[in-house]
Write a structure and sequence with these properties.
This protein is mainly α. The protein contains seven helices and no strands. The longest helix has about 60 residues.
């Protein structure tokens, strides 16, 4: 009788361990997928931003004949941002693009006709809206990375994460403090 009881207890412990393993694994997969989804949301907004920049540059070209370098800087920063691969590379490239856009809007202050152009104002408004969406998407992504990183690094789920080779996520951050500021746009 005691041998049967011992076997039942052992079986219950094994079943509980397997169920715990399955639970930890599934929660790690769910969190990893949430991180991927959050990154996809950032990617959508970054693409929108990249698509708006040529319209902004084209609208400004006619007015800013003497500011060729400023326009080229935006175009080059956009190209680098579109070609960035990892989260860290994207963060640095997007930060540089934000800086180029900020400098562009500072130069625009010298062109009152451009500031009054309806096409320019419409593109500028879309870009401002997109910048806000990128900021919200970045915050959501970083929150998801925090959740998955906590799960991967905390006991006992860290054991399951190690067994199945789950990797900590990389935050989407801007490294240069000046790049963290939103582009200042004032068309008053």
């Amino acid at each position: 009788m005691t041998m049967k009881l011992l076997l039942l207890i052992l079986l219950a412990v094994v079943v509980a361990a397997v169920l715990a393993l399955i639970g930890f694994y599934n929660s790690l997969v769910r969190l990893r997928n949430q991180v991927k989804n959050a990154w996809a949301q950032i990617d959508v907004q970054l693409k929108r931003r990249h698509d708006l920049i040529p319209n902004l540059v084209e609208t400004a070209k006619g007015y800013m004949k003497h500011e060729r370098q400023t326009l080229e800087n935006i175009t080059q920063a956009r190209s680098r941002a579109m070609g960035a691969g990892s989260v860290g590379e994207k963060g640095r490239a997007e930060g540089a693009l934000s800086g180029a856009i900020s400098k562009f809007f500072l130069v625009v202050e010298n062109y009152p006709d451009l500031k009054a152009n309806q096409n320019f104002l419409a593109v500028q408004e879309e870009l401002t809206s997109t910048e806000n969406k990128i900021a919200f998407a970045r915050q959501s992504y970083n929150d998801q990375v925090l959740f998955v990183n906590n799960k991967i690094q905390m006991f006992p789920s860290n054991i399951v994460a190690g067994m199945f080779n789950f990797k900590v996520g990389e935050y989407f951050e801007l490294e240069d403090e000046s790049e963290k500021a939103a582009p200042k746009v004032d068309f008053s």
